[in-house]
Amino acid sequence: MAHAGTLTISNLSKQYEVKGEVLPVLKDITLTINPGEFVSIVGSSGCGKSTLLRLLIGLEEDYQGEILLDGGRIVGTSLERGIVFQEHRLFPWLSVEKNIGLGLLNAKVPEEEKRRSIQEHIELVGLSGFETAYPYQLSGGMAQRVAIARALVNRPEILLLDEPFGALDALTRAHLQQELHRIWQQESITMILVTHDVEEAIYLGDKVVVMEPRPGRVRRIVPVALAHPRDRAAYEFVRIKEDVMREFIGQPAEEVIEPPLRAHDAPSDRLPSTFRFAV
What we know:
Layout: E1 7-18, E2 21-33, E3 38-43, H1 49-57, E4 64-69, E5 72-73, E6 81-84, H2 96-101, H3 111-124, H4 140-152, E7 158-162, H5 170-187, E8 190-195, H6 198-204, E9 207-212, E10 217-223, H7 235-249
Parallel strand pairs: 3-8, 3-9, 6-7, 7-8
Antiparallel strand pairs: 1-2, 1-4, 4-5, 9-10
Helix pairs in contact: 3-4, 6-7
């Protein structure tokens, strides 16, 4: 089991220079993410969500403020931090097990231990039997499972997810949300999800960080004190969703989404089985 890391972001600001003009992208971001916590970050396009992930993974170092993992400043990329993108980015000429094995390319562990870890993570993401399959033989959901396994195989302290299900159809997306939650509980590591999907953010997150753009900054942090597994149709879930949506639209959320359920409403039909289709 991986060690879960504590991430501390203090007064983080980031800017670029475009055609001689300074373009602020992030401004005064302060956030603490506790060990084993699942944090969802939502915001409209241009609020700097992906830039924030690039800084957390260590792809950029030119910023103001501090980003600390377990008290140490993040410098460059590291096996301590894994990332999954919207596109799976698998190598088409490599099999499932070899694609996952790339996550251990720089790991200083014996080959036998590498093989054992690869097999464990193939089983973790539910792809036993597909070890020798190639990306063209996989569905989109299966390919994204491989990407998740590749990011987890070296036992990172933190897993960063940049719209990992954004390119998938609704049923596959819902199923993989459930699978990601299962993996998070089983691995007990810190996860940070960037998404445009408010419902996804609430379904998975212990808290939802709402960002606003130009420059990107934290507008509000919404705790999600709901037990798992979460019912998307439950009154409290819909109430939190409406609350978060209101931050974006600047008007009563009921004008753009379905009206909230009342506490005494009991929906006559639930669709949990729909979300259990194999992908």
